[in-house]
Amino acid sequence: MHFTINGQSFDVEPDIRTSLLDLLREHVGLTGTKKGCDHGQCGACTVLVNGRRINSCLTLAVMHQDDEVTTIEGLGTPDDLHPLQAAFVRHDGFQCGYCTPGQICSAVGMLDEAAKGWPSHVSESLDDGALTDEEIRERMSGNLCRCSAYPNIVDAIREVADGARDERRVGEEAAA
Amino acid sequence: MTKRPDQPAATARLDASVQGLIGTALDRIDGPAKVTGTARYAFEHQGDAPPLYGHIVGATIGCGRVEQVDAAAARAAPGVALVIADDPRLVSDSASGSEDALPAYTREIGYFGQPVALVLADTPEAARAAAALIRIDYTIADGRFDPPALHDAADPDPPRPLIPNRSIGDVDAAMAGAAFTVDAVYTTPHHMPAAMEPHATTAWWEGDRLTVHTSAQGLSGTQRMIAGSMGVPREQVRILSPFVGGGFGGKTGVVVEAVLAAMAARETGRRVKIALLRRQVAHLVHRRSETHQHVRLAADAEGRLTAIAQESIVSQKPGRGFIEPVAFGSLSLYAAPARRFTQALVHVDLPAASAVRAPGEAVGSFGLEIAIDELAEKLGIDPIELRRRNEPENDPMSGKPFSSRQLLACYEEGARRFGWERRSPVPAIRRDGRWWIGHGMAAAFRGNFTVESRARVTLAPDGRATVETDMTDIGTGTYTILAQVAGEMLGLPARDVAVVLGDSALPVSAGSGGSFGAGSSGSAVALACQTIVERLAERMGVEPDAMTLKDGHAIAGNRRVPLADLLGGEALSVEGHATPGAHTRSVAQASYGAHFCEVAVDAVTGEVRVRRMLGVFDCGRVLNLKTTRSQMIGGMIWGIGYALGEEGVIDARTGQFVNPDFGEYHIPVHADVPHLDVHFVGEADGWANEVGAKAAGELGIAGAGAAVANAIYNACGVRVRDMPITLDKLIAGLPEA
Ligand code: FES
Ligand code: FES
Asked: Which residues are in the Aldehyde oxidase/xanthine dehydrogenase a/b hammerhead domain (chain B) (predicted)?
């Protein structure tokens, strides 16, 4: 079978029982994606499939022929951090680091969902696009952190979200 | 703070902070590796040849005997390399103390999930599928699964407690003669450490030498127990644990998977990887014992305590030594002439109990700090004022002076920052729409210990330093703070200090646990640096005190010499050895704090939301403002979890946890946690250790949950004494909306 992970091609013949998570960790050597529960309960395994966040432990590898999978390794490197990765370091949005790749991939997906105007459980209305701290917390609640870096994670995401919004505004102004 | 003659000297250079590195909010130096997924944890160790995957098969009964095991179908299953079933090569339990080896395999089942077989296969899927084919026949016995039902038979004076039962004065007489009393029972349930990284090991042999990459808080005990279990000298065993995905006490010992991986690697000649499934973690790793706390307080009319008693009952599996030291944080918190702190023990057929973050304080603070809140209400005085009136002069247990104790400052600063004076002293007054709003506070206390620790510091010919120790960083920030200590002592920017941890081949450290890691391992680094400083001063031809080190240069008089020139092409390598030292016995040492919390309680459903929370702490010198603050918010959030959600529930028929995963064991999530404020008031405590840092990692949790509980009472007037405070316990008592 053929998989595209972080823009790279991989030919692997996984067991039909192999989860996408185990494909990444045990077959292609991308161990940045973590296994915290294997049950869809913790979010440590979050990756982006065709741009959307997904618990990779809850989906079988064989379902992802030709999908575009992005893992934490595809976002940035220690010498060239993704803005969210840099913000997590600056705000200490982690301690042990085990939930962190999942938090960051989830945040990438979440910011995109919010930008598209998708509401959450706490949204006041269907077209209220403000990404408040409460919205960030609600939308990130599938990503558990036992070290409990939550407030710092929110600060890190907030900084990037505000930055992204400002950039958009600058862009919009420029276009106007 | 004032220098005393018998204080360690090495703190002087840290106090001066010429490099400006110690205490700053430096980003974690291991941060980029963690946020990019390049930090490798135990199960992620890469080798040349494909590994074998192990799957542990556990007993599906909680008490009884294995009569027969049929593993034929598993052995014949595709992909299976080896099945070891009902076999003395297995082990029966994890170990978390001073054991030399893990307990041997036995057919007698003492807890649910006890290992009965191990399956090794080419893939995890094949191992797990084959494991499902193993048939185990049991004789089931009646197990002791329900601790409260056994309380009548509790041993009042169990052997080898962490804190011995203590009784001073006559509590009963004080209670009889008191103007005001509180006499109530408080309970906390089973808790799980539940680190996000499940326990995992990769093990391989090269000849008679074993390497075990595992997830451990302390390496030397891990090495001893694995070597003992394998029957080889410990010099032949190397433990690696450079990154640990959370510990919280759960990785203080050796869990079965590590020994089984080492054994299976020897049997097969292959690299073997075993990770516990999340639901196995709950059973094969220890729990924190549930507690039953009988608290009595007696006070005179002015609110001066005349007696404090906290008598607890906890549980343990037979043969295991740890007894949850419930009163640890209560012993020295308040003055009172009559004092009684005891622990009784019941034996149960449940997973072993052992240390989980802040043994004692994390749960004992619920009993004491809620009781103090109840007493304040009876007396009609503010809870902070009551605490002030009972602030002891010296340690009320030993009579020794405190090394440093900024508890009153924590109350004062916290009250000011939180706006405590706006709290209503009468419960169930304040409303915000459908929510009752309340405020509560509690004190935090965590004893400080320094544990023997070694570290090697090498100044390379180019003037850069490397710190090496077998210490671990379990998220606590060890990599970063050791770089800060070494950088400050040697006058180097953080980028010129490399820190190597988590390898048993390096000098033996205290390990991570008991909040002693930073102080102990930091002291070893400071001592090593101090010797290097003396040698550099010799080369400068001056006394060490006359030499300043900054930005890679030695400065004395009007000379400024690059370290590389002083080193003359040769490295300087020194091992530092920190020991508790004689001075630590002459004073009582602890960290302190005060938690303040605002909650909202839904007037109809009883749902509780924490709206804001503040912690003010005295933990001596803060080595890194950013990582220490993170430790505190982590602890405070654990307090929220203990107050509102966490509860390990045992099926009293089978002895298994019915909620052994994150779906049903409810740890806090993003939506449960507001912005948290943290503030530090402490100063370097030269009595504590060479770096002046007191216990931090567990301080944040002590009392945090009690502050939440007290705020809930203040909000809605319902006093819940059984944790966690779920809405079913509030709803019947809620005032008419
Ligand atoms: S490992 Fe996938 S959600 Fe926990
Ligand atoms: S950083 Fe440890 S679990 Fe989140």
From this structure: 36-142
